[in-house]
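Researcher: We're teaching a course module on how sequence relates to structure. For the next exercise, students receive a sequence and then see the predicted structure as tokens, so they can try to spot secondary structure elements on their own. Here is the exercise chain.
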Amino acid sequence: MRAPFKEVVLEGVASGPVSVRVFCDTLDNKTAPVVLYLHGGAFLDKAVNVARPVAECLADAGAIVVDADCSGPTDNGFPQSLEYAYGVLEYLARKRELGGKKSLLLVAGEESGGNLAAGVALKARDQMPGKLDGQVLISPLLDPFMGTKSFQCADRNGMRERWSEGWNRYLGFLGGVCHPYAAPRFCSRLAGVAPTLLLTAEDDPLRDESLEYSSLLTKAGVPVHQHILPAGMGWARLYGGQSDDEPTWQTEICARFKSFVDDVRARPG
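Model: And here is the predicted structure for the students to work with:
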């Protein structure tokens, strides 16, 4: 099932009006989790009117998904992209125009969008503690040094050069210095970050950096749901990589997300 979406303009964001797509069955659901979704694209893509399969999965799982495209307005650079995304999250937390008082507020993203989601979650911890209920990181792009063992397989799905170019674009002005919001894998202070759902796959070049971040979060006392999906599910297609396998990960993402939401709701307030 492909979730329907509506075009909505958020008028009260600090950076000015923001056009978003809202994926959901109905905007009247007062208990559905509200998810700020940040799409992938290796910090390079600027396409707006393209499919958002991950956003659709989360909406099919019962969420109201706010797809905020940060690439066009910010030219895929740090800190502009992160500030833009955080501004939308702050608006959703402040206005509560979507969902209801009992709706969870989460941030989610895959690949470069997973990097933004992780950075936004860190800033939310620092700037509006207690307002973000969870983060969903799907093969997050976290390590600009690209030196993990699993990353050696990036040539197989045609992503090595693309990720290298993307990191250079995103971090270009930093002159090689990694701000913790830009490269969360190297953040030294992770305590207090929102509970985390982290998904990767056995044949994912981003597997090791994802699992390393999961381990760091766990050591910092952050509740983490970590899942490594089997190889052969066409996982690379999730972020535009090459794969001979047809994508079969949609059902897994839906199921893992539902379980995570149930767990977050069950946690003491």
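Model: If you want an answer key for the exercise: Residues 250-266 form the longest helix (17 residues). The two ends are 33 Å apart (CA to CA).
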